[in-house]
Amino acid sequence: MMRSINLIVVHCTATKEGIDYGVKAVRRWHINRGFSDIGYHMLIHLDGRIEMGRPIEKAGAHAKGFNANSIGVVYEGGLDSRGNPKDTRTVPQYHALRRCVETLKVIYGDVDVVGHRDLSVDLNGDGVISKGEWMKACPSFDVKTELDKINAS
Length: 153
Known about the structure:
alpha/beta; 7 strands; 153 residues; 3 helices; Lysozyme-like; two-stranded parallel sheet; 25% helix
C-alpha cells in the first residue's frame, strides 16, 4: 500500500563541496547513528544522477515529525571547504533537483515542497521561520525562492 504523501523535504548531506559519497556511504552513516536504513528516499550526485535510497513506500528518517507523509530528497554538499553552510549545488545537481521535484509533483499532486530548515519551530510566533529560528541551515539555499523560479517557467 502506498503512503499518503503531502510534503517533499529538500536536504543537503552537510558535507564539504565537491565530494561524491553516494547512497551506500550515507546509508552507513545513518545506520551508525541508529537508523534502520538511509533516511532519504533520493540522493542527487554531483553529476546530477539521482540514486534511490530508502524505498518511497517506507516512511523516511529525515525530518522528525514529518516523515510519515513526506519524501526526503538530498543533494551531496551544502558546506564550503571550511565546513560553513553554502549552496554548493553543481549545475547538474540544480537541474536534477528541479526535475526530481517536478516529477514528484506530477506523481503525488499539489504537495508542498520545503527545505529541512523550513520545518524548524516558529519560536517568536510570527508565522515565518527566520534564520535565527533554523535548527540547521540545511539545505543551504531557500527552497521557496527556488520553487518560485520553477513555477514561473
